[in-house]
Design goal:
mainly alpha, six-stranded parallel β-sheet, antiporter activity, Cation/H_exchanger_TM, transmembrane, NAD(P)-bd_dom_sf, transmembrane helix
């Protein structure tokens, strides 16, 4: 048989990652744990098949490029600015606290200050993948506390991008022969600064115009294959060009390529078209990271591992909680931020790999970071479930509308999301009286600012329905996107008003069936209505089922 180490490495990495990722998913933890475990299995520190470490490292570089490209694509300056007053100072102070804690542990181990800095920095940044999964599981991504947590992570990511640029210069300065002076430290940093500035000038003045034009031309060819190839060529080409021409990291080039592309109307299509390949190489990146991990650290240095995990799970989480509370936010927002940060992930692995590659972080530091990541990612869902409240539950206090808002023969509207806002706007324009029920504080506040009558509570709670005047209402409109949760609202309303006209929305046939069985008189399914509208425009009989 031909000797094919590249194929063997890719096949072994992906197959075992799939198996371990499926096990992790079954255990209700992040698949990242499974991917890292797959790397350990095919790594040199465990018996059996050993993948080619050099090839895995090169595949991991592609994974880093595509990961950073994805970070750039999803970077949202608008989202960051909406929570800048808490996310920017909070993230910076929390990074400083966690880095100092890591440096303290490194100092106790006798490492030099730069090694301690890299170690602490790696412990300070949480995984965006793990965070988003936790927020989505609790249904709080679009809430104020969810946006603060995401904005916090955006600031952390930006700080880590800067660190990836500056670390090689710091390493070069520290390795200079002779005594350390300000000039030996500043000269490499200034050289890096000039290179980065040159790269940014080219990206902002040239690439910002050329990339969108090129993509628009490709889109007009009508070829999805060519568009997909163009996006990958931009990601990899800009990253490689940044490294070769400006001597900056692949990561910085890929991040800016993604950020520029993310500003165009084609960003969503670019994300969807490249996602499968990005996911595949991201998996190989995590596998390659797992291959570097020596499991012996768990047995040989248990106390150091406990200290590392304590910094990740307790130290920086307490710092985040205190910071958010000092910035005058409530307990729920503070505990959400704290639990969100009680883990480390992608950037920690990139920093650990870079630190060991530059010979400024000892291998045991890398092992502690990887072990800390595995443990913190594994326990984070349990921490989140124990500490973070989900969407407001039945029985929480209901905030009724003003007495002046009491009405008869009005509409009760549940939900002020994208659909709910459109309904509310139209009802208001027509002069139709209605009262809104909304359980998310930020959405309820936005509705009040728009001059609407709002019941702050959960529509599953009879108290909220009574506060909205369900006894005297003419109709109930359920605009929340979750069809099965909408069915529970229908049942709660039917228990109070069996004769009430109820209209709900759904996304699937199963949700339609559930809502109708619960007692909804009319169910609007988005896809079906789009089809009906398109068919009506060409005079074709409408879709009825």
């Amino acid at each position: 048989m031909h000797h094919t180490p590249l194929i063997a490495t890719i096949v072994a990495g992906l197959v075992i990652a799939f198996v371990m990722g499926a096990i992790a998913h079954r255990l209700k933890v992040s698949p990242l744990v499974g991917y890292l475990a797959a790397g350990i299995i095919v790594g040199p520190f465990t018996p059996g098949f050993v993948a080619d470490a050099n090839l895995a490292a090169e595949l991991a570089e592609i994974g880093v490029i595509l990961l950073m490209f994805g970070v750039g694509l999803h970077f949202s300056l608008r989202d960051l600015l909406s929570v800048k007053n808490v996310a920017v100072p909070g993230a910076i102070v929390q990074i400083a606290v966690a880095t100092l804690l890591g440096m303290g542990l490194a100092w106790a181990l006798g490492w030099d200050p730069l090694a301690g800095f890299v170690f602490g920095l790696a412990l300070s940044v949480a995984s965006t993948v793990v965070l988003l999964r936790a927020l989505q599981g609790h249904g709080i991504v679009e809430t104020e506390r969810g946006r603060i947590a995401v904005g916090w992570l955006i600031v952390e990511d930006l700080v880590m991008v800067l660190a990836l640029v500056l670390l090689p210069a710091l390493a070069a300065a520290m390795k200079t022969d002779g005594p350390m002076t300000w000039s030996t430290l500043l000269v490499p940093l200034m050289q890096t600064g000039f290179k980065v500035t040159g790269f940014l000038v080219v990206m902002l003045l040239v690439a910002r115009r050329v990339i969108p034009l090129a993509l628009h031309w490709v889109v007009h060819t009508g070829s999805r294959e060519l568009f997909r190839l163009a996006v990958l060529a931009i990601a990899l080409g800009v990253a490689f060009g940044a490294a070769v021409v400006f001597d900056v990291s692949f990561a910085l080039g890929a991040f800016f390529a993604g950020m520029i592309l993310g500003e165009t109307p084609l960003s969503r299509q670019a994300t969807e078209e490249t996602l499968p390949l990005r996911d595949a190489f991201a998996v190989l990146f995590f596998v390659s990271v797992g291959m570097l991990f020596n499991p012996a650290v768990v047995i040989e240095q248990p106390l150091l591992l406990v200290a590392t995990v304590a910094i990740i799970v307790i130290g920086k989480s307490l710092a985040a909680y205190a910071i958010v509370r000092l910035l005058k936010h409530d307990h729920r927002t503070a505990i959400t931020a704290a639990a969100s940060l009680a883990q480390i992930g992608e950037f920690s692995f990139i920093l650990a790999s870079l630190g060991t590659g530059l010979q400024i972080l000892p291998p045991e530091g890398r092992d502690l970071i990887l072990a800390g990541a595995l443990i913190s990612i594994f326990v984070n869902p349990f921490i989140f479930n124990a500490l973070v409240p989900k969407r407001q539950e039945k029985g929480e206090p209901v905030e009724p509308p003003n007495e002046a808002a009491r009405r008869r023969d009005h509409v009760v509207l549940v939900g002020y999301g994208r659909v709910g806002k459109l309904i509310a706007r139209d009802l208001k324009a027509r002069g139709k009286p209605f009262i809104l029920i909304e359980d998310q504080p930020d959405m309820a506040r936005a509705a009040k600012d728009a001059g609407l009558d709002v019941v702050r509570g959960n529509a599953l709670d009879p108290a909220a329905l009574h506060a909205a005047g369900i006894d005297d209402a003419s109709k109930l409109l359920i605009a929340i996107p979750e069809g099965f949760e909408g069915g529970a609202v229908v049942e709660a309303a039917r228990a109070i008003r069996p004769d009430l006209a109820i209209i709900a929305r759904a996304h699937s046939d199963a949700e339609v069936a559930h809502l109708e069985a619960a007692g909804a008189g009319e169910v609007v399914m988005g896809e079906r209505e789009i089809a009906n509208r398109m068919l009506s425009l060409c005079a074709v009989p409408l879709v009825r089922a």
